């Protein structure tokens, strides 16, 4: 029987373990912090649970337009919100662990390190005795941790990483979010909706520099309309605390004062000190593990998946890399990872969902594509719901009309992107997308309408 040892029990690791067990391998997952990994315990699940509360608050704030008025004011009990967040994360972790055990996967609590490519030494977190696990294949899926700087050291109380915010039991009176990538934008949006005075410090000229520029412009407009201060072209130099106050000093000498600071400065891979290079695993710049499209590293029988590879830091991609690794190792049918079909979402209000080729790639001439952008403001359902911000954008190849990408900005864009993702994955044409019925009235009507506008009339 093939022995598989998985180091790291996040989505990259536990999904791989489930596939390996299904294919008849003897599987052990080693994890330090709890099954589900950062995705479940500190990052993805907690942040989206917090955002669920924030969304409701944002809707209530705008309910007036739909004829609802409140007596008194809406307030957030952050201690209660955070208790729910943590309860839900722990329950989700326990659910996944139970599923692994049911499928015959052995779970070991401890820190794993490679001793050559076919051995993993586990040091228990509670200081017990080390054990050595022999493996025919090792999957490294150790994830990543928040990047911090000497000049901006988190203290867990007022200067916080995204893993530490759930310890807050009172709403910050003034929160400074440093970093306007996806994580920074999501937290800024959520706390703003919860009624917090938020300043977003962005080193670039707009928020979400990696996303569709039109989408980022819509979002920045909404942020400022809702009272957030967005400081663009503002690079943080240091963050200091004095009593109950924090000061973010910018490289141009300006100082921003607040009660709390949340650092969203990106992630560093958890790849040092676990015997990777000694086992023949090559690390790229920044310490990420180099992998090919079937998750192989440079060491025979060592695979890697997820954030520790830096391929695309999403739970969905981590999970797919992990599954692909096991399909490949255990000889099942496998298609290499195709990043062009990945759909992703920024959970701000409004949400921004994307799939396939981007506007940037089209503008740079990397692919020839026609583009249609349709504002949601013309959609009947959007009008009924008081939705003004957002759009659907589709890209299709000239001539064939095959849909190669799309962007949706709006409430629940994460759900609305799915038909576009199917079109991209299955090489459907804009006509095929347009000809599927949509419910009237519905936001998805705008996806079909955008596709209709890409129709090429041929005589
Ligand atoms: C705030 C935030 C929100 C996010 N939201 C989303 C989202 O909505 N959707 C999405 O798709 N992605 C989201 N992501 C990204 C997503 O969380 C990551 O891509 C995902 O966690 C990667 O999974 P992983 O398995 O690679 O690693 P992780 O989930 O980080 O799991 C790695 C595990 O390995 C353990 N480990 C580390 N070293 C060792 C060792 N030596 N021995 C044993 N165990 C070890 C860690 O303790 C951890 O439990 C978010 C990220 C952040 C920061």
Explain this structure.
The protein contains 13 helices and 23 strands. The chain is of the alpha/beta class. The model has no long low-confidence stretch (mean pLDDT 96). The structure holds flavin-adenine dinucleotide (FAD). Flavin-adenine dinucleotide binds next to helix 1, strand 2, helix 2, helix 3 and strand 4.
Distinct ligands: flavin-adenine dinucleotide
Given as residue ranges, the uncertain stretches (5+ residues, pLDDT < 50) are: none
What kind of oligomer do you see?
Answer: single chain
Please describe the biggest sheet, giving its number of strands, its sense, and whether it closes into a barrel.
Answer: 5 strands, parallel
Q: Please estimate the helix content.
A: 25-40%
Beta-strand proportion: 15-25%
- Which structural class matches the secondary elements? alpha/beta
| Structural shape | globular
Beta-strand segment tally: 23
Mean pLDDT across the residues is 96
- Strand arrangement, major sheet: 3-2-1-7-18
Please compute the radius of gyration using only Cα atoms: 23 Å
Distance between the termini: 62 Å
Q: What count of helical segments does DSSP give?
A: 13
